[in-house]
Amino acid sequence: MPTGTDRPAPRRVRLDADGPVLVEGPVEIELPDGTTVSSDRFMVALCVCRRSRRYPFCDTSHRRKPRRRPAGD
User: Fold this and answer.
1) Distance of alpha carbon 69 from alpha carbon 22, whole angstroms
2) In this protein, which residues make up the domain named Iron-binding zinc finger CDGSH type (predicted)?
3) What average pLDDT does range 44-70 have in this prediction?
4) pTM value?
């Protein structure tokens, strides 16, 4: 059983209401189909709007077209 000193340092994740999710890297991302992609960058921007041509990585496509707000907001 691991002790408290054996645990890896936590990753910091930053959420931005109108942009990508920023994760301190390096990271390995598991996609819904089970495949994995990785990045060894110090900060990784993950797309949440699904407009990126580089999904799951953000390419700033969200800046070109405003996100549609759900009805009633």
Assistant:
1) 22
2) 24-68
3) 81
4) 0.67
Q: How far apart are CA 57 and CA 48, in angstroms?
A: 9
The whole-number pLDDT of residue 9 equals 76
- Tokens found for residue 20: 């990508």
**For residues 53 and 59, what is the distance between their CA atoms, to the nearest angstrom?**
7
Amino acid at 29: I
DSSP assignment of the chain equals ---GGGSPPPPPEE--TTSPEEEESSEEEE-TTS-EEEE-SSEEEEPSSS--TTTTB--SGGGTSPPPPPTT-
Q: For position 72, what pLDDT does the model report?
A: 62
Structure tokens at 58: 């953000």
Tokens 């405003």 found at? 66
